[in-house]
Amino acid sequence: NVITRHATDTRGAYAEVRRGEGGINDKFVRFGSSLGPADYRLTIGQTKDAGLPNLVDSSRYNFINFRSDIRLSLTDELGVQLGHSRGAGDEGSPYAVSNPVRPVKTDVSFQQIGWRRTLSIDDEINVRIARSDNRWLESAIFDLPFPPPLDRVPFEFKNRSTRDSFGLQHQLRWSADVRFAWGAEARWDATESRLLYGDTRPRRSNTQQLFGALEWRATRALVLNGGAMVEHV
């Protein structure tokens, strides 16, 4: 569960560059402002590194993220998040014929929209709809001890996974000493991989879950927490 900062908290321009051993070369810029009732933030960056010594695991990625928080009323707020990342990481071994050095290209995107209603300082409802799309592409050439044209055999592995989700969460305080949170989520996952399944037909799975958590401050020095979840796949 990753919670990013509200767009209101990151107004203005910001830039950062990181350099270090192992080929570390990261840089990104961020700009945040407001337009009417909407606060927004745009981040663009790039990460690079050479990986660990004596291993083939360098990586290089470019990314862009956008977030906007829109005040609809005194109690309601709409949040929108979009992001995309593209790059490659190297894998394999220069000493193993069965594991040649190759780039693994990735293309990842996500979209999320959420609605939050704040009934009081201790009573809040959140509804979220999200989608993610992850794609991988591995391509390599195997050098085999055979005469041409069998000495170099190309190999390509494509994989794609998507997830759509809908979630609801309600946090409230029952009394001065008891807080409670409950929620539900439904997820729809799909994976496509010819290498794993022998065809390009997507394999799908659906998941539904219901969860709750209770916090009770028994004394000033003792807080008890309990939680439960029921999930169906």
Helical segment count: 1
Count of DSSP strands? 11
Radius of gyration, in angstroms, nearest whole number: 24 Å
Q: Please indicate the percent range of residues in DSSP E strands (runs of 2 or more).
A: over 45%
Helical residue percent band? under 10%
Helix/strand/pairing class, anyone?
Answer: mainly beta
| Run of helices and strands | EEEEEEEEEHEE
Mean pLDDT: 91
Query: Uncertain spans, ≥5 residues at pLDDT below 50?
Result: none
Per the principal axes of the C-alpha atoms, what is the gross shape?
A: extended
Q: Give the N-to-C terminal Cα separation.
A: 20 Å
Order of the strands making up the biggest sheet: 1-2-3-4-5-6-7-8-9-10-11
Describe the structure.
2% of the residues lie in helices and 72% in strands. With 233 residues, it is mainly β. It has an eleven-stranded antiparallel sheet with strand order 1-2-3-4-5-6-7-8-9-10-11. β1 (12-20) and β2 form a beta hairpin.
In short:
This protein is 2% helix and 72% strand. With 233 residues, the chain is mainly beta.
Topology:
Blueprint: E1 12-20, E2 24-35, E3 38-49, E4 59-71, E5 76-91, E6 102-120, E7 123-143, E8 152-173, E9 178-192, H1 194-197, E10 203-219, E11 222-232
Antiparallel strand pairs: 1-2, 2-3, 3-4, 4-5, 5-6, 6-7, 7-8, 8-9, 9-10, 10-11
